[in-house]
């Protein structure tokens, strides 16, 4: 059983990385662009990752297969 | 993000309005310096065209430009390419007046010489044409005569014999002897004469018919086609022509024939009757043609040499003329000082942070020209709205273009272009989530970005220019697509299984004949690969992608509303934070923020066997029957109370949005009037020396409560309805993503999986077809559609929350920009 904790762990990781890059931004006129890009990228990517993870955390439906998923060469075009 | 750094992309640069006094004698050099600098925009101070000072100079440059164009046209006719100067030479220094004079002189010389050469060449060409035609006429007439001789009428022309003449008339065929005809000939003429010449082949039919009618058949006509095409000296076009030779009796008839020839544009050449004379003529003509050819070649050579001289310089000249012209156009914006007319007064805008650079440049000009009077640069406050100027580089340019296409930012308001850099490619990628397609896109864009220096010079048409201009957008779109593709676990519609599926299967269920997965753990990154070939994949992915679209949408819209705070702070409207921003954000969050909360709550709840409520219904019943929640549809205890409170808060926000700001403005207006300030302000403004600026201020000051109220009502309705429709609009993220995944899967199944059944050859052919379909449909067409939808989400759903877009773009006077525009205009 997985828990939600991994979300917070990744959040901490991403936040750490983001802060690091934010502080390491070059001190020229592109600094604002660089920092904004870093922060927004972190937010967008982590959010989407987190959504994808917790959407599968407590599944309400189970995957159904019309054929044995462990058989490698299952007839591919019968599956839908 | 909140930095006040003036040159950031967050808001446009602070601008300063200036007044510049330039001594007339160094005006040209000063403006040239500004052209190099490219940081100053001049405003046209002159109201009417008569006030313009430098009309004659521009006319002179126009004349020079015309001459240069003539020379360039001659060059392209002679297929001589202009020598492209080195790049640094392209932006070369500005020329002095002397050099311009010299250049004009040289242009004149070249033009004169070329015109002369063209004239002599034209007359030579005409002569050449005549001689060529004459040669053909001589040759063909000789052959006519010879053919008639073969038919037994030797020397028929020298000693005309009537029967033989009749032979000739019927072109060698056994003649039906016409007695009356013969009689007429016998009576009227003593000799059978002829006219020979050349006519264009198209006119031949008409010519023949007219002649026949005019002479009532009393002629014998012979013609032959000239095999080589004759080049018309005037139009330079090859035309096919015929040689004709008409025999007729009598002077009148011959005169008539000549007249008809003239009117139809045929050329008549004198041909002697005697064969030996003709032969001599022909020899003479051939030798003359040879001579003429020699002369023509010489002329052509001389012209080529002349044009090559021009080709060396033409690009440089063109650039100089362009510069000089733009300088004088700019100078025409200036006002002449009243009185002694010894200086020009310029007004315009420049970025505040560049003032020192401008002053430095001005002192440089004074030093170089050795002028005793230096140009005077003064800041000159005005009530005009300054232009919007973002400092861009090649990376940020294309993103700002997306925003500018919607509307130029109002002066100093928050610029969505800064956020578009990431959010645009991200939202694109949500719709375009496929690792394989993302990789292809990234590789393409990376190649373009890597070799941009060489590719920038390529002229591959408009579509290529579009891709090239957006190369950094495409690069980021590709990178984000790789990421979202990994999350969706889509690689050309297949799936990676890196961490091992979190589901296991324990045999077939006998009642349904299906295999059901058993949950063990959650796949740590992205969607579990087990879903990919499952029967109910769509059920799962639709729910996931739909909810994700809502969450991302609410996030972006809340962010957009929050950006208003920066605007209110910057424009000193702090009260609007409470009157506008807070009710708006609370309204949005209490309805759709709550929806996001419910989505997350439902995902995070362990539903062991319980039937979870439908969120859409919950939201609908939150409005339809507030205060009651069906126990079977309940997410959490106390849900009814929470929903009622949220609903109340949302409804309370509406009157605040509607009335708070107009009421505040009205109150403020009353206060000022009560203190009598507005009268004082108005009279002080009127006592100031008359300018348009005062009027502008007055119209702004005028308070009309009904206008403000109407505006506020529209704004509120737009916001409240927009909150709903915009949230729904974000569902396009789900729809496009679904379409992309499905299309990709269909193409894989229809092509590759079928092809695999035919062995190696099938796979090779199938792969070719599949790859083309993937690139053409999935990456190009689907990419374009996802691009357009991301564009819409930014323009409408995101920007209408905070972006005014009522600004005017700062258009500095810059040689580099002018040269670039000129070049793109040429291509």
TrEMBL record, chain A:
Origin: domain of life: Eukaryota
Subcellular locations according to the entry: Endomembrane system
Chief subcellular location: membrane
Residue spans crossing the bilayer: 6-25, 32-55
Stretch forming the signal peptide: none
Matching Pfam families: ATP_synt_H (PF05493)
One of the GO biological process terms: vacuolar acidification
Keywords from the UniProt entry: Hydrogen ion transport, Ion transport, Membrane, Transmembrane, Transmembrane helix, Transport
Entry's Gene Ontology molecular function annotations: proton-transporting ATPase activity, rotational mechanism
One Gene Ontology term, aspect cellular component: vacuolar proton-transporting V-type ATPase, V0 domain
Keyword DNA repair: no
Membrane topology: Multi-pass membrane protein
Family to which this protein belongs: Belongs to the V-ATPase e1/e2 subunit family.
PANTHER family found in the cross-reference section: V-TYPE PROTON ATPASE SUBUNIT, VACUOLAR ATP SYNTHASE SUBUNIT H
Protein name listed in UniProt: H(+)-transporting V0 sector ATPase subunit e
TrEMBL record, chain B:
Keyword Transmembrane helix: yes
GO biological process: vacuolar acidification
Chief location: membrane
Compartments it resides in: Membrane
GO cellular component: fungal-type vacuole membrane; vacuolar proton-transporting V-type ATPase, V0 domain
Keyword Secreted: no
An example Gene Ontology molecular-function term: ATPase binding
Residue spans crossing the bilayer: 426-450, 471-488, 549-569, 581-604, 645-666, 758-781
Span list, region Disordered: 156-180
Membrane topology: Multi-pass membrane protein
Coiled coil: 54-127
Keywords on record: Coiled coil, Hydrogen ion transport, Ion transport, Membrane, Transmembrane, Transmembrane helix, Transport
Functional description taken from the UniProt entry: Essential component of the vacuolar proton pump (V-ATPase), a multimeric enzyme that catalyzes the translocation of protons across the membranes. Required for assembly and activity of the V-ATPase.
Family classification: Belongs to the V-ATPase 116 kDa subunit family.
Protein name: V-type proton ATPase subunit a
Species per Swiss-Prot/TrEMBL record: Clydaea vesicula
């Amino acid at each position: 059983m997985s828990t939600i904790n991994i979300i917070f762990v990744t959040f901490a990781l991403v936040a750490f990385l983001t802060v690091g890059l934010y502080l390491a931004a070059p001190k020229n006129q592109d600094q604002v662009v660089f920092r904004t890009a870093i922060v927004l990228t972190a937010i967008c990517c982590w959010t989407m990752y987190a959504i994808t993870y917790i959407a599968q955390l407590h599944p309400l439906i189970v995957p159904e297969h019309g054929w044995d998923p462990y058989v490698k060469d299952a007839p591919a075009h019968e599956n839908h | 993000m909140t930095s006040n750094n003036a040159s950031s992309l967050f808001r446009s640069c602070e601008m300063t309005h200036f007044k510049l006094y330039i001594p007339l004698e160094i005006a040209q050099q000063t403006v040239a310096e500004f052209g190099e600098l490219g940081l100053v925009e001049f405003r046209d101070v002159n109201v009417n065209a008569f006030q313009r000072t430098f009309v004659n100079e521009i006319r002179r440059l126009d004349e020079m430009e015309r001459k240069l164009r003539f020379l360039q046209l001659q060059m392209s006719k002679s297929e001589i390419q202009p020598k492209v100067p080195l790049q640094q030479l392209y932006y070369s220094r500005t020329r002095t007046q002397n050099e311009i004079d010299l250049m004009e002189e040289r242009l004149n010389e070249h033009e004169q010489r070329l015109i002369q050469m063209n004239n002599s060449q034209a007359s030579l060409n005409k002569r050449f044409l005549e001689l060529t035609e004459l040669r053909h006429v001589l040759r063909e007439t000789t052959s006519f005569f010879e053919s008639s001789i073969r038919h037994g009428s030797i020397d028929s022309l020298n000693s005309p014999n009537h029967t033989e003449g009749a032979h000739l008339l019927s072109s060698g065929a056994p003649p039906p002897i016409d007695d009356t005809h013969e009689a007429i000939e016998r009576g009227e003429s003593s000799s059978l004469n002829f006219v020979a010449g050349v006519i264009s082949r198209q006119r031949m039919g008409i010519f023949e018919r007219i002649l026949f009618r005019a002479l009532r058949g009393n002629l014998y006509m012979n013609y032959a086609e000239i095999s080589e095409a004759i080049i018309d000296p005037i139009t330079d076009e090859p035309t096919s022509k015929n040689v004709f030779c008409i025999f007729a009796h009598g002077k009148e008839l011959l005169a008539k024939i000549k007249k008809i020839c003239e009117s139809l544009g045929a050329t008549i050449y004198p041909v002697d009757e005697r064969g030996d004379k003709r032969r001599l003529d022909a020899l003479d003509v051939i030798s003359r043609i040879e001579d003429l050819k020699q002369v023509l070649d010489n002329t052509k050579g001389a012209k080529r040499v002349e044009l090559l001289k021009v080709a060396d310089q033409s690009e440089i000249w063109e650039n100089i003329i362009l510069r000089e012209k733009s300088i004088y156009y700019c100078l025409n914006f200036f006002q002449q000082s009243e009185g002694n007319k010894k200086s020009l007064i310029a007004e315009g805008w420049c970025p505040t942070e560049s003032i020192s650079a401008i002053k430095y440049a001005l002192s440089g000009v004074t030093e170089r020209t050795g002028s005793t009077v230096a140009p005077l640069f003064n800041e000159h406050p005005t009530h005009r709205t300054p232009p919007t100027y973002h400092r861009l580089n090649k990376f940020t340019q294309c993103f700002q273009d997306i925003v500018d296409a919607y509307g130029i930012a109002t002066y100093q308001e928050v610029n969505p272009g800064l956020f578009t850099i990431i959010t645009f490619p991200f939202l694109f990628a949500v719709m375009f989530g496929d690792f394989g397609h993302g990789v292809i896109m990234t590789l393409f864009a990376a190649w373009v970005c890597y070799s941009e220096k060489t590719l920038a010079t390529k002229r591959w048409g408009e579509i290529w220019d579009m891709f090239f201009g957006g190369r950094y957008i495409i690069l980021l779109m590709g990178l984000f697509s790789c990421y979202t593709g990994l999350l969706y676990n889509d690689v050309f519609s297949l799936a990676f299984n890196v961490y091992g599926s979190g589901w296991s299967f324990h045999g077939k269920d006998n009642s349904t004949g299906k295999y059901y997965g058993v949950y063990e753990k959650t796949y740590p990154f992205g969607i579990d690969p087990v879903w990919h070939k499952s029967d109910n994949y769509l059920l799962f992915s639709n729910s996931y992608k739909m909810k994700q679209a809502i969450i991302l949408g609410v996030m972006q819209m809340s962010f957009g509303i929050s950006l208003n705070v920066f605007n209110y702070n910057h424009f000193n409207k702090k009260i609007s934070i409470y009157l506008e921003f807070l009710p708006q954000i609370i309204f949005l969050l209490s309805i759709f923020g709550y929806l996001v909360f419910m989505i997350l709550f439902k995902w995070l709840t362990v539903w062991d066997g319980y039937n979870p409520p439908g969120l859409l219904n919950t939201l609908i019943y939150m409005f339809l029957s507030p205060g009651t929640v069906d126990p079977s549809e309940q997410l959490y205890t106390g849900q009814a109370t929470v929903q009622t409170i949220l609903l109340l808060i949302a409804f309370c926000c509406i009157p605040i949005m509607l009335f708070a700001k107009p009421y505040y403005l009205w109150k403020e207006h009353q206060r000022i009037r009560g203190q009598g300030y507005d009268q004082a302000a108005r009279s002080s403004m009127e006592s100031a020396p008359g300018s348009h600026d005062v009027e502008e201020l007055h119209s702004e000051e005028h308070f009309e409560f009904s206008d403000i109220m109407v505006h506020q009502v529209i704004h509120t309705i737009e916001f409240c309805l927009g909150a709903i429709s915009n949230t729904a609009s974000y569902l396009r993220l789900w729809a496009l993503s679904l379409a992309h995944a499905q299309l990709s899967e269909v193409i894989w199944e229809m092509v590759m999986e079928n092809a695999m059944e035919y062995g190696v050859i099938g796979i090779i052919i199938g792969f070719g077809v599949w790859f083309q379909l993937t690139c053409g449909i999935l990456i190009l067409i689907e990419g374009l559609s996802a691009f357009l939808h991301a564009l819409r989400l930014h323009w409408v759903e995101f920007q209408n929350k905070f972006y005014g877009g009522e600004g005017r773009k700062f258009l500095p006077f810059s040689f580099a920009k002018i040269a670039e525009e000129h070049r793109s205009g040429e291509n």
